[in-house]
Every structure is written in C-alpha cells, then in structure tokens.
Amino acid sequence: MKNSQFSHICVIGLGYIGLPTAATFAAYGVTVTGVDVNEYAVDMINQGKVHIVEPDLDSLVRDVVSQGKLSAQMNPVAADAYIVAVPTPFQENHDPDLKYIEAASKALAPFLTAGNLVILESTSPVGATEQMADFLSQARPDLSFPQQAGEHSDIRIAHCPERVLPGKVLQELISNDRIVGGMTAKCSKAACDLYNIFVKGSCVTTNARTAEMCKLTENSFRDVNIAFANELSMICDKLDIDVWELIALANRHPRVNILQPGPGVGGHCIAVDPWFIVSKTPDEARLIRTAREVNESKPEWVIAKVNEKVIEFLRDHPEKSIKDVTIACYGLAFKPDIDDLRESPALGIAQKLAAQGFNILAIEPNIKKLPSSVAVNIKLASLELLDNTNINIHLILVNHTQFGNIYFSKNDKVLNCIGLKCIKY
Predict the structure, then answer these.
(1) Active site residue ranges
(2) In a domain, 425, yes or no
(3) Over the range 261-288, which residues count as b (16 or more CB within 10 Å of their CB) and which as e?
(4) Which pLDDT tens digit goes with each residue over 5-20?
(5) Residue 75 sits in a domain of what CATH number?
C-alpha cells in the first residue's frame, strides 16, 4: 500500500461504482468497510458474492472478502476516509434530488474525527459537494469544515466523479485519469493521496464546482452527439433513407464521426446529468435541453413504429386482436452486455407496449429474473425458446453479443432500432 495515512476507509453505497471501488482499494491492501441500505447486497458481499454484473468483479470480491480486507454492513464505522457513492436522481420537474447524499452524510457524521477525508463520488449538480459539507457541519458542530475554516479545517472535503465504462469498470478505475476537486488545496491533496493508492492515471486537481461540472459536461457532450444521431434516424425514416448506410458514408469524411442511433439513452449518467446543468441554468442551457428532449422522445417514436407493424400484422390477420399479438423485445438493459436497467429506454419501451395489451417476451441474457416493478405481461425468455414460439413482431433494442447470430426470414416483421448487421431479411 502506497500511503499508510489511509489504512481503513468506508465506502457508502455498494452499487455499480461503490462496490468495484471498495474491492479495488481492498485489493491494494486497504481495509474497507462497505455500507449499503440493501440488506441483500450486504449479505451477498459478506459471502464473497456480488449482486451486480461486472466482468471479473465476482472473483475480486471473493478474494478480498476471503482475505478479510472487505466487509459490508448497513451502517458506517469509524475510518480514515469516507467515499460517498450513492444515487443522485432527479425529481419530476428535473430538479436534482440530494436525499441520498443527505442521508449518507447524516449516517457517517457521528463517526468523523479531526483529520478525516470525505469524498463525494456521486455524479452531482454543481454545488452538491458544498451542500454535503453543510450537511456534515450541521450534524457535527464540534468539528470545523472547509466552508468555515478553509485550509485549517478539521475535515477535508472533495468531489471526485467516477468516469468509468460499464463492462470495463475494474480496468478503468485504475487506468483513467481522475478529476479531483477539493474545497481547498489541502482537501485536493488528501483526496489525491487516497486515489494514488491504486490509480495509474493522473489525478488532476481543481475546485469542487469545476469537478462537478466536468462530469456533467462529459455526459452532456455525449448526450448531444447521441441526440444528433437519433434525430437523424427519425429524419431518414421519413425520407426513406437507410440511416446506418448514411452514417457510414458520412463518417468517411475525415472530420466527421457520427454516433449510432438507438431507441433512446439510458443509464444513471447520460440520461440524468444534463438535467443537472439545465436545472441550474435553464435560460442558457438551450442546446443541452433540446438534446435531452430529443433523446427522451425516441422511445415514443419506437413505440409508434411498433404500432405500425402491429397494424400491418392485424390487417394481414383479421381474425386476430391486440391480445393475440406477441412481440419479442431483444434486450432490456440500457447498453450492450450488462445487466443494468437504470433509466433504460429498452425496458421503458417493453413496459409501455405491455401496457397496450400486447404479449411481450423479453430476451435479456444478462438477467435471471425481472424486477417486481416490471409489467406482469412481460415474460423473460431465452433465444432458444423463441424457436418454438409464435412471434409476430421482433423488436431489436440492445446490441448484446448473444444477438450476433440471429436470423430472420423475409416474412418476419422486424423493427431494428440499432442496425444490427447480422440480421438478414
């Protein structure tokens, strides 16, 4: 271990970021106590198992738990540093909701002692790190915080947003540069000292607000570019042009790199973060807002196209009704080869189609059981089962590796939302 200043850390939130982060610190010799309100997740981790899908995470967790370096529980403990990696959703009006950050702050506050470091990793609206510091100071008036005592504070506070790719989290945690935004220079240094235990990339320091805005900017940039591709796909559909052929041709220009369209945008970052910018600067963030609205409209466009296919099918089979229509939805996750359903446009599309009365078969090879919140007339199915099932409409939503050898006959009614090249008509 590079830095003996941090022999024990507490990671609050053991989801797709918190658990890999906790396990990686543990693998580098730090004693880690993970905290989560999900009792099932805590029990699984203490058995050396995982409750999420991420390549190689299961073996890493098994190893560090067996070595006694990682344990999980439902309440924080005294530690040298605290990493807060909890969700930051938005409300119905798209204003950010900091209730989980507030709850985490109030839970860890009783254990703070002078010299501790608290890092907010959760992707957050600008000012959230300062708000977390206020939550902590209100709970612990006996300690001083950066907003009160500056460099002389008892507690160091920093923001360091995660910026990893699902499916490659363990590699990118180590290899990627980290943006470290301390509330003071000493706060930044303390956070860098912690991450340098395992980070091979650079720890680039700035202030907390710039670090928060950096993560929001990265994801908003991606959202705007995806919106261009999604809007282009709707334009091309109206003009009877193959959008995937068009993009391939346009991308032959040396300075053009258009992304691939899809059924929308999901996940806990790109589908959420731009709204944090819009909520703070609604009059200025016009392009960012429009991009978000384009991407949020794409699932409804997909549903309208499915309904066109249904009308064709019912016209060809007048003896049938809507309740006789079976639609196979290929993929429910928000991106290929993961099990993450958060903000997934594919899942939302399947649910809305089920609500219309169709029989929905969901082919999602990365999950074993559908969440209880999913509509009752959605059934999880395997690719093998489809061979013996009468499917009326095939809806391709996610480019999972397992879908690479699907073959459809010319008579199949297929709506291909991702341009999967292996599909033959």
Answers:
(1) 215, 269
(2) no
(3) bbbbbbbbbbbbbbbbbbbbeeeebeeb
(4) 899 999 999 999 999 9
(5) 3.40.50.720
